[in-house]
Amino acid sequence: MTLFLQLLVEGLVIGSIYSLVALGYTMVYGIIELINFAHGDIFMMGTLVSLFMVTNVFHLTDVSKMSLGGMLVMLVVTCLASIVICALLGVLIERIAYRPLRNAPRLAPLISAIGVSLALEDIAKAIIGPNPVAAPYLVPLVHYSIGSVDITNTDIIVLVVALVLMVGLQWLVTSTRIGRAMRAVAQDREAAALMGVNVDRVIAITFLIGAGIAGAGGFVFLLSTNNTVFNIGFELGLFAFTAAVLGGIGNLVGAMLGGLVIGLIRALVTYIPDRDLPFGLPHGGVAWQDAVVFAILILILVFRPTGLLGQQLAEKV
Amino acid sequence: MTAEHEQAPQSTRQPLLELKKVTKHFGGLAAVQDVDLAIYPQEIVSIIGPNGAGKTTVFNLITGIYLATSGEIIFEGQPLKKASPHQVVQRGLARTFQNIRLFNNMTVLENVLVGEHLRLKASILDAVFRPPWVKQEEEEARRRAIELLSFFGQHLVDRQDEYVINLSYADRRRVEIARALASEPKLLLLDEPTAGMNEAETMEAVHYIRRLRDELHLTILLIEHKLMVTMGISDRIAVLDYGRKIAEGLPDEIRRDERVITAYLGKAATADRQTWQVALRPQPEGEANNHHE
Amino acid sequence: MAMLVPSQILPQTGETRRLLLKWVIAFLVPVLVFTLVWSGEAILNAALLAIFFPGSFSIAAIAAGLFMLLFYGIITGLTGYLVAADSGRQSLLDLWISMFFFTVVPILLIYITANLFVGLAASVVVWAFYYYGRRLVRRFRPPAPLPPLPSLKVLDAEMRATLLTRARLGSFWFALSFSLIWLLVDLLFYFTGQYGQASLVFLVWILLRSVLLPVAGWLLGSLGGLVAIRHAVPANGNGSNGDRAGAPVSTRRLRLLSATRAREEARDLVPNDLPLRSTGARNFYLLLLLALLVFYPMIDPFLFGPGTDSRLDNYGNAGYYVILALGLNIVVGFAGLLDLGYVAFFVIGAYTWAMVGSPQLTVLTGIHINPDIWPWLFWPMLIVAALIAALWGVLLGAPTLRLRGDYLAIVTLGFGEIIPIVVQNLDKYTNGTNGLTGIYSPAFFGVHWNVSTSEPYYYLILVLIAIVLLANLRLRDSRIGRAWIAMREDEIAAAASGINLTRTKLLAFAAGAFFSGIAGAYYAAKLSTVTSGNFSFSDSVIYLAMVVLGGLGSIPGVVVGALAVYAVNVLVLPQLDALGNDPSSIIYPIYTHILQVIPNFSFSNIRNLIFGIILVVLMIFRPEGLIPSTRRRHELHHTEAEGVEITSLDTPPGAPGFESEMRVE
Questions:
Q1: What predicted TM-score, i.e. pTM, was given to this entire model?
Q2: Which of A82, B214, C498, C654 could crosslink A49 through cysteines, CB 3.0-4.6 Å?
Q3: How far apart are CA A159 and CA A149, in angstroms?
Q4: How far apart are CA C576 and CA C585, in angstroms?
Q5: Which domain of life is it from (chain B) (predicted)?
Q6: B99 touches chain A (CB under 8 A)
Q7: Could B29 and C652 be called an inter-chain contact, meaning their C-beta atoms sit closer than 8 Å?
Q8: Beta strands in C389-491 (DSSP E)
């Protein structure tokens, strides 16, 4: 039971990072129906920017020697830098690789996105090399025990940041002018354009916000795991994208939910013992993590073809 | 105008298609409610009604695109039950769409060939190995497709290799009908076959719809907004309003039906009756009102 | 109709001279460059040596010589055809310049880089600049636009005879001038004593050749002329029966077609404004390509020197990418179902042969098979592997039928992730991450198969590609292919035309997976080892890139796309470091410059960066792919023109539509 609860907490933490990245996938998909394969790599760039900020700008070696104020300044500045740079990167990518393809066949931007993804990974590899890079602790690690479950302060930070960003985004989309414009463009680009919405600008802003959130995701990821690698964006991005689809692609709440569900599944699967079927799986659950996630995804989609919270798109007959 | 089979008492014959209390709900909204309708062999029946009356929904129910919430659809004495769209085609119903749904990046000929899909036998292995009978079947299919196109005149035959997207609106409608004919239907459902056509094209459409019945012995159910057209070619007319059938009868009866007039013009518009009567006059007149969007 | 005076229709007699000049020079230059600067001469000489000097007998050299004769023959015939087929509207200079860029430049670049793919890649770069330059020039001096069907003229019997004569003259003059120049050069060599001891044979050959070539030219010209006549617009072609296969295109029908469509149709016809792109010319190209592919292993040593085996090995690998791309094209290109997990079927195919064709079979089942017979099992297992993959294709397809668009994509993606994990974790059967080794090569009469000789695999993959290609072409033009394309275009209309969406989708998945299974079995046999770690999502992505880059739904496009992606990714980019370090190469100076700025720079570190940029740039400039299917090109140009659809006002607002309601079981 303890182990179960412990895994639950771990699942929630990693799940909320998936959710943050999934938001970007789902926003972009919602507005231009593109699977933005480069989004995971923007997240990866977020981890790199955060790493660069703490090691090269703040010259962090041991956080326990820092004053509380200094640490807070470092965290906030690092997070903001990550958000801003990722947001700009997102807009830049949209401008270069996707905007010229607005009216192209559907799969052309997809391939373009794959190209950007490959390019970003190689750039990252050129910067940090092919191996995982460890980061120093960004906050002094504190363990809390609730019952027998162990929670660290970084876990709590991750959850809080994720929650704040998600609520903020939800508010932005439902209650602001730009949010309304985004929804209008997502519904019907031509009609929105006729109504005076600057479609290009709205799409750029969508990329800006989505990539910014991925930047924040990159920051909290570094904070909670203390390492990064050039292809983390690819792997994590795959699950984030899966989360977006699971929740119902184009649906913000769905993306959050999907992220949490996948985080939980991945955590709980490790619980499966190393035994032959039917009492376990050869090599234990860890070896099957990804397979189980996708198997459950397929099962869910069989019964809910448009995801957990997906709306049925109406097609006129 | 009145075809001779009109005289035969309908009750003695078995209807080709029969709708019994067909109802369709979308969520809480009843798009079609308790619609009864019977269509007899070689009849031309029109469904008319204001926008949003549920006409196309009826078509979608008949052709298996939507599943009726309740009620029964019977074709040749056998219920269609839960037949999916292609099974419906197999039974002998073919349709066209209001917003022409052709395969835009295929040629005219290929579009009609797709319509012949069910008639052809070649399986995937036959397609790869292409034994002589498959070659023959393909040739035969092409010959038939061209024959169908020639129903609308040499002019479509000449354009058999054109992508349909390059055709005029009226020609696209014709190709869509040819594609529907290719499946050898007994009942043809035409969803607004003259929408978007000019006066001359409309008259031509009326002409060939009648020929479809007279020469190919088809039964035709059509949705039409141009009352001039419906009044002209229908043997019978059914009127839908808010998903319910409010009237059914001969064109002359419909023209005089109070409920129909109210449904079309609204209660306040009694003053417009004169116009209405003019609009419904069966003879094609120069400025007959086009009640379509 | 036949009243038209020939002189008005075909270029006049004075014109004939101009046409001869035009085409003879256009082909003489590249052929001479190839022959004299490069290997044409050497290959033929080697063949002569092999025949007349017993010590140096070699079948390969004779075969290579045979290819060269074929090569010269096809080019001569082509020249005749072009002289006959040309409507004379394309200007001399235009043609010569483009011929120079598209033949001489690649020949020279391949010669300089001594590497087929690096040379071709460099040529592509040059072509890009050429196109850019041409566009600039045209902006200043726009050429008179070609009307859609300017040359669409009816030809009667007399004019056909003129065509035939013209074709003969074309080939004859080409052959004559070629042989004269060649003779001069060879005599020069001869009298400077370059040919040494074998000189007499060569002298006889040179003289004989000079006489025979013009004669052969005359004969081949007749051939070219016959091809041209086959495509000539017939005088009495009313085409009223409209049978595309048999009856010729009628001029009247062509005039009724829209400009774009008519231009496509008119490509088949003679006289032709752009004869190089006409169907008749294409037959010659195909023949040439076929000859090249068949004889390639023999010519390769003459062209690129030692290392033939490793090059053939690469082409053998490129081959299964072609099969994979063709298979994926059925799913994505024809049926319009986005598949991001195509690698799964490849894995299944590979493991099928790996588990049956390796000692693992004995380990698992205890069955012992005579090692002489074992390799023969490859052939039936090739089919079995494909069938098993197809079965899995159906199994994957089944749950996805209700899904649309990108939901489908994610399920296929998931499947592509699951399969390698399953293979990896069921190590009891598959040997997990250690993989399976000692997989048998196929066996065939009198062929020595072995992992280190690539030639048998080269021919095997050639045959497999030919079969898959033929199957694809036939499928496309069949009832099933039409159903796939119809489904891609509009599912609802397809269903309403009697197409069973369930079946059709499953068939697409099965057919795609089938070809992937073939590729997989071939891969296992060629590598003789498979490891689960070698397959991942990024492979699926690469396959997809091949298909989209080549041109969705276009069979030639997909083949080119697969070769291009493979070449760039495997043959060109990894070569860049070696090339950069080689002082004689063209990129050496650039490389050294970069090294001065970034000391530990290496192209291998930025392979994906370059590849990624290439993908983005190509998509931006050619979103429809390198060789789009005519349909697709069309679609692209009409997306905007299509405008707003008349929407069905009969659907109640907010009503859940077709998606949720349509029943596909």
A1: 0.89
A2: A82
A3: 16
A4: 10
A5: Bacteria
A6: yes
A7: yes
A8: 436-437
